[in-house]
Amino acid sequence: MQRILIALILALSTTVALAALDKPLMPGAKVAFLGMTFTDWSTEGAYNGVRPDETARLKLLEGATRDRFIEEGFVILSNDPVATELASTANPADCYGCDVRMAARLGADYVLVGEIQKISNLILSVNLVLRDVRSGETLRGLAVDIRSNTDESWLRGIRYILKNHFFKS
């Protein structure tokens, strides 16, 4: 009986957690977009350091993400009041809640962070997470793997996340 109860609790907790990812987003909400972080786990990065084309692609994805949120009616807040803390944070997508705390200081309803993880020049992962600032609850979050290290493949990854998960109709 105890095993059945544990199995039932686990099944329901997963269902409840996934249900949060389909909650409607508040129209006109204020979003603290803390940007995208590039994490290079490839041996290429270890030997050659930062590549200017990848740095430019990161800015390209930030612009595409920001533009899509604005198109959907969200207000993107300025990060100026938390610029110093943000600059000293290695990865706002993985900082033990510092993203939510910074967003709260900005007066945001939601905080948005992203990460590009490079495994090799062929295999990369695009990650995007939207959290409710008051509760810290993840409202949207998805990671997609992409193949090839080009502007087109990076944009395809972020557009897939935005179209099929964040703003699916």
Automatic annotation (TrEMBL):
<dbReference type="InterPro" id="IPR021698">
    <property type="entry name" value="DUF3280"/>
</dbReference>
<dbReference type="Pfam" id="PF11684">
    <property type="entry name" value="DUF3280"/>
</dbReference>
<protein>
    <submittedName>
        <fullName>DUF3280 domain-containing protein</fullName>
    </submittedName>
</protein>
<keyword id="KW-0732">Signal</keyword>
<feature type="signal peptide">
    <location>
        <begin position="1"/>
        <end position="19"/>
    </location>
</feature>
